[in-house]
Amino acid sequence: MTKLSVNINKIATLRNSRGGDFPNVVQVAKDVQRFGAEGVTIHPRPDERHIRYQDAFDLKTAVYTEYNIEGNPIKKFMDMVLEIKPTQVTLVPDADDAITSNAGWDTIKHKDFLIDIITECKRNNIRTSIFVDPVLKQIEGAKATGTDRIELYTEAFAHQFGLGNSESIVPYTECAVLANSLGLGINAGHDLSLDNIKFFKDHIPGLLEVSIGHALISESLYLGIENVVNMYLNKLK
Ligand SMILES: CC(=O)[C@@H](O)[C@H](O)COP(=O)(O)O
Ligand SMILES: NCC(=O)COP(=O)(O)O
């Protein structure tokens, strides 16, 4: 069974575009859980251009499933995480100016740094996951950091699968087999969608959790817009 954690960053992006509080991220978090989501993911970035640090605190009592906070473990991020104590923290090596996450950790180069951060999270009973590219030596490196889980960075798979190249799953399957043998839990995310999620899940043994935001929110617009247009038309009769 693979858990679905809904990333609500895009809801905050929409809210921020008007400066008010609509759509309300706390209400959306409550709603997606009511609809069956098994977790809520947020990824605050230093410039707070979408989900804000204050949202992370406001969501603490609203998220009664798994609360997953992703981000680069700079001091401000770690202070927040250690205060909130979410179910899971996912460490992502984002550059400040990255439009979105675009690489996994070099778990070998950053081993000591990751060990320090992961040790601190575990001391606070927060499960850890680290964002990694599907490269075998990076999975071995992840094991050496003491992390509970890895999150496979799925952008390359999603892009190639969309072009019809289903063999792009191969490195992910190989990394999953290795991670399972090392006792690492496996999460995955980035550009997963209704088009590719079934194929991905079917080829990743032991996939514990996926976090999905951009496609899920976009698909919700496409799948819901007919209904809403008709609701407006009915009110305008
Ligand atoms: C780690 C990861 O792949 C997601 O958190 C993704 O980065 C979503 O963040 P944005 O909403 O900023 O694109
Ligand atoms: N960890 C991945 C995530 O939270 C969502 O990524 P995306 O679906 O917005 O690409």
From TrEMBL:
Principal place of residence = cytoplasm
Where does the protein end up? Cytoplasm
Recorded E.C. number(s)?
Answer: 2.6.99.2
Q: Which GO terms describe its biological process?
A: pyridoxine biosynthetic process
Query: What family does the database annotate?
Result: Belongs to the PNP synthase family.
Function according to Swiss-Prot or TrEMBL? Catalyzes the complicated ring closure reaction between the two acyclic compounds 1-deoxy-D-xylulose-5-phosphate (DXP) and 3-amino-2-oxopropyl phosphate (1-amino-acetone-3-phosphate or AAP) to form pyridoxine 5'-phosphate (PNP) and inorganic phosphate.
The protein's name: Pyridoxine 5'-phosphate synthase
Whose protein is this, by species? Formosa algae
Gene that this sequence comes from: pdxJ
